[in-house]
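Dear Dr. H.,

I hope your travels went smoothly. While you were away I took the liberty of generating a structure for the chain from your last submission, since the lab meeting agenda had it listed for discussion. I wanted you to have the full record in hand beforehand rather than looking at slides cold. The sequence, exactly as received, is reproduced here:
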Amino acid sequence: MLRSTTFFAAAVAVLTFGSSSSAFAPSQAVGRSSFRASPAVYQQQKTASSARGSTSLSMGAADIDLKGKVAFIAGVADSSGYGWAIARALADAGATVIVGTWPPVLKIFQMGLRKGQFDEDSTLSDGSKMEIAKVYPLDAVFDSPEDVPDEIKGNKRYAGLDGYTISEVAKAVEADYGKIDILVHSLANGPEVTKPLLETSRKGYLAASSASAYSLVSLVQKFAPIMNEGGSVLSLTYIASEKVIPGYGGGMSSAKAQLESDTRTLAYEAGRKHGIRVNTISAGPLKSRAASAIGKEPGQKTFIEYAIDYSNANAPLGQDLYNDDVGNVGLFLCSPMARCVSGITMYVDNGLHVMGMALDSAAMKTE
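The corresponding predicted structure, in token form, is as follows:
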């Protein structure tokens, strides 16, 4: 049990700081992030995907048409996250995609885009490549320039950058595009995530809430006024919001609970005031580049491999989860097809959230 908890804490620590993460494996993918498949050949290519170890399986945007729509994805810095998968699904449906990237990794991300490092993960259903129309520096723990402390202003990783607070980015997006239609929150950070809640400091707890939950509130505050009526806001959460996940500490479980509660309240307030919808997706474990490198000992599986095996053994649908599964659900929730859907937590976890007993538990074995 101690070994598993240690794996969990280590995995969460890296994944929480992932540039497009939702604080845990669901926000990351590994290896080739996509290849295209139509519903007619789903089973055939699913088998091929499993054989190649891919973590995504795209089935296209079907009849959803988002041409003329603008989507801002907050928290994208590589092609391995759920934020990227949602962006690609939106682009596949014709939306113009713009992103906000954490300043310390902005140059690396932009260089990767220029060098074509993400081209393979950018392929759309028609064979073309997803285009990111513009990348904005964004640090979502700061609402306005007055909030930025001197140590950040003097940090070399922020050198030469300005206008990265939420209010400034919203103004820049408005200046460039006028109104937008879709806002995706793919952000989380918990500096003390490896600590049990009993050992978490007030500073660490509040930092997790600020980066992982209040950031959504602030984004909606600043972006809702520049969103077209009928627009959609979407975030990413995790089952630790409502179930105990040993090792998921530092106040992150509380932050995810806040995020889901705020989703419901924002759905009401922003719905009435701005005519937009607010939803969140709770995804299951997905093998990630970061998690694959953690907790690996000779003869032992990594934590994320344990988590995936647990899900496959206990979820109602014992099948692999691909990052495009979340991307496609995100596309639906952000499209007019979900025009009457707001305030929900949508589970994309093969049904694992409904289980109250582990089928592979030793206590379940018959003698």
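Two observations you may find useful: The beta strands are 70-74, 96-101, 132-137, 180-185, 227-237, 277-283, 345-348. Residues 1-53, 289-295 have pLDDT under 50 and may be disordered.

With kind regards,
E. W.
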